[in-house]
Write a structure and sequence with these properties.
- The chain has 205 residues and is mainly alpha-helical.
- It is 76% helix and 0% strand.
């Protein structure tokens, strides 16, 4: 089964992350270290929140989905440490890795919390992971080719390029047919788009 219904696929097409200028510049090696450091500090909040959202999703899920969601949450609980390795590789110090969330990040976190409280935690997680395999592969290529970052500094993306193929299938199956999941995915991805915009500082023309 495909990992997205036509309705969810339309949301992904609307918010195709690889079309965002931040990621097109990442692929081209045009991001500055300051932009990568800022991104590392802001998205770290999402990496840390995802296990909590998945645990809450498990609490709210039908019995047949709870074990899968709890295992997924357990997997994600180990990933902040991998994200910190990426942050260190791009030159972020402890303060930058633990930066306060900016307005866009706060909006994404608040939306994730609200939707999860409404029983839509699986849709929130799917929104964050549905494009992850393809995006992570492009990030890996860009990090290696343009920023000389491989091995431990890229391990977070290596893992997600593979593991999220399974995760998005599992989550997509759970949320298929739920119209509220479509609305949730649109809300989360629009705010993720804004987060990426918030850390981008392209050179002046």
């Amino acid at each position: 089964m495909d990992y997205a219904t036509p309705e969810l696929r339309a949301v992904l097409d609307r918010w195709d992350l690889l079309r965002h200028p931040f990621y097109t510049r990442w692929k081209a090696g045009e991001l500055t270290r300051d932009e990568l450091v800022d991104y590392a500090g802001q998205y770290a909040h999402v990496v840390r929140a995802l296990p909590r959202w998945l645990e809450a999703a498990a609490d709210a899920a039908h019995a047949e989905h709870r074990a899968v969601l709890r295992e997924h949450a357990h997997d994600e609980a180990a990933h902040p440490a991998l994200w910190d390795q990426f942050a260190a590789a791009v030159g972020a110090d402890a303060a930058e890795t633990n930066a306060e969330p900016n307005d866009a990040t706060r909006s994404l976190l608040a939306e994730g919390e609200m939707l999860t409280a409404l029983g839509l935690g699986a849709a929130v997680a799917w929104s964050l992971e549905a494009q992850s395999p393809e995006v992570s592969k492009e990030k890996l290529h860009g990090l290696a080719e343009h920023y000389d970052i491989t091995d431990t500094g890229a391990e977070y993306f290596s893992l997600h390029a593979e593991k999220d193929v399974e995760h998005r299938q599992e989550l997509g199956t759970m949320i298929a047919g739920n119209p509220h999941a479509v609305e949730a995915a649109d809300a989360v991805l629009s705010r993720l788009w804004d987060l990426l915009s918030s850390v981008e500082r392209p050179p002046a023309a």
